[in-house]
Amino acid sequence: MKKRSPTKTAWLSVLIMLIGVAIGFCSLFFLDNKPMAMLVIIIAIAVFVAGIIVNLALVRCPHCGYHPGRICGPKCPHCGKDLEE
Predict the structure, then answer these.
(1) How many angstroms separate the first and last alpha carbons of the chain?
(2) Potential cystine with 31: which of 18, 37, 51, 68 (Cβ 3.0-4.6 Å)?
(3) Residues 7-53: pLDDT tens digits?
(4) How far apart are CA 49 and CA 34, in angstroms?
(5) What is the spatial distance between Cα 81 and Cα 61, in angstroms, rounded to a whole number?
(6) SS3 41
(7) What is the mean pLDDT of residues 71-80?
C-alpha cells in the first residue's frame, strides 16, 4: 500500500473542515426555516469533526507513524526523516 503524503493529507483535512464551516455559515445566512437551519448546522458540525478525525487518523510520518500536529517543515520532528519520501 502506498504511503500518503502527510502534507497533502493535512491540507485535505483543512479543506474538509473549511467545507463544514462554509456549510454552517450558509445555513445561518440563507435558511429562514429554523428547524432546517439547525439540521444543516448539525451536518456542518459533523463535516467539521470528520475533518478533525481525518487529521488525527491519517496525518502521520510515513517512517515512524508520529502525528506531527501542524506540519511546519519537511522533516518529522520525532525521527528527523523526510515527510515526503
Answers:
(1) 14
(2) 37
(3) 888 889 999 999 999 999 988 888 888 888 889 999 999 999 999 99
(4) 22
(5) 9
(6) helix
(7) 77
Report the SS3 class of residue 75: strand
Other Cβ atoms less than 10 A from the Cβ of 47: the count is 18
Say which residues have a Cβ less than 8 Å from residue 61's Cβ, sequence separation at least 6: 6, 67, 68, 76, 78, 79, 81, 83
CA distance 26 to 53: 23
For 72, the grid coordinates are: 511546519
Q: Where are the alpha helices (DSSP H) in 1-85?
A: 6-30, 34-58
